[in-house]
Amino acid sequence: MVPRHIFRAILNHSEPFALDLDKTPWRVNVRAQVIMGFVALGLGKGGLFVSTYLIAMAWLEPDRTVYAVACSVLTIVVMALGYIITFARIEAEIDPQKGVVHLTRRMPFYRSTVTTPLSSYQGILLKSKEDQDKRFTHTLVLSHPDEAPNVPLWHRHRPEPPMVEWAQYAEALETQQLQ
Question: Do both 112 and 78 map to the same domain?
Fold first, then answer.
């Protein structure tokens, strides 16, 4: 079982995205900020060079074996994190004609799809967060009583809440705006 906090982190650090209401079925694809994955992969590659050096030194000086193993393990963890960040995503498809929502969470070697009736969702929830630089990030979510099938619809950094978009999504999905 893959921890849900990985996908929560992807959503919290995602590239801006928006569900396109002009095309049905409606689809949205949420990915983490690519720069985060590139940084992790870059650190992992740098770690490979250090690990290789330490392994070579371990043959000459046996007391460096612990450093070589620790550095190699750390490098593998950082590269795996970079790989996950780069290729993991959340995909949602909302089909109003069939009245269903397909929510897929995927990452390398893992895929989970949940299909839920559109009528079981409560409404469109506006989530706003302020970071330490006083920048606001707003996310519109199709909210379900059970948090697992929540569907992210819109995500942007901007000073004002997206009141127009919030109303548009609520009207298109024939549901209410939640506080």
Answer: no
SS (H, E, C) the chain: CCCHHHHHHHHHCECCEECCCCCCCEEEEEEECHHHHHHHHHHHHHHHHHHHHHHHHHHHCHHHHHHHHHHHHHHHHHHHHHHHHHHCEEEEEEECCCCEEEEEEEECCEEEEEEEEHHHCCEEEEEEEECCCCCEEEEEEEECCCCCCCEEEEEEECCCCCHHHHHHHHHHCCCEEEC
Number of domains in the chain: 2
Give pLDDT, residue 79: 76
Do 54 and 11 lie in one domain? The reply is no
Residues 95-151: tens digit of each pLDDT: 888 999 999 988 888 888 989 999 999 999 999 988 888 888 899 999 999 877 888
- The structure's pTM equals 0.73
Residue predicted with more confidence, 154 or 76: 154
- Which residues span the domain enclosing 165? 4-32+91-178
